[in-house]
Amino acid sequence: MVTGDGAFGFNGMEFDTAVRHGLNIVALLGNDSAWGIDRQIQLGLYGRAVATDLLQTRYDLMAEGLGGYGEFVERPEELKPAIERALASAKPALLNIAVERAISPRAEAAIGRRKAAAPN
Question: Dmax over Cα atoms in the chain, in whole Å?
């Protein structure tokens, strides 16, 4: 599974379900400490972001606390071995991967549509 930190906030407790049912999934969580697309749209349209910054939360520790495997990945070269350890854990696993903030193509398109529709 691939998710972001904002989206994971809606369903992260399902790691409890995965542990209870022995569902050995591996989640790759891209963590940029933001509600990414909303933040980028706000910046693109209004020049500032409001209430879209998140903390650098250790979701990996949450997964461990629920009985799964968790690991915090900070550098690209750490990713492959972390995935291998997650797969070998035989538990529901979450890799909390620190990523840079970057604008998505969806945000760029939304900003472009809104600006094009704005009256001159």
Answer: 58
Render pLDDT for 9-61 as a digit per residue (tens, 0 to 9).
889 999 999 999 999 999 999 998 888 788 888 888 899 988 888 888 999 99
Q: Report whether 91 contacts 21 (CB < 8 A).
A: no
- Mutual angle of helices 36-46 and 105-117, in 10-degree steps: 30
Q: Which of 96, 97, 92, 95 lies closest to 67, judged by CA? A: 92
User: DSSP letter string over 54-107?
Assistant: -----HHHHHHHTTSEEEEE-SGGGHHHHHHHHHHTTS-EEEEEE------HHH
Q: What is the reported pTM?
A: 0.85
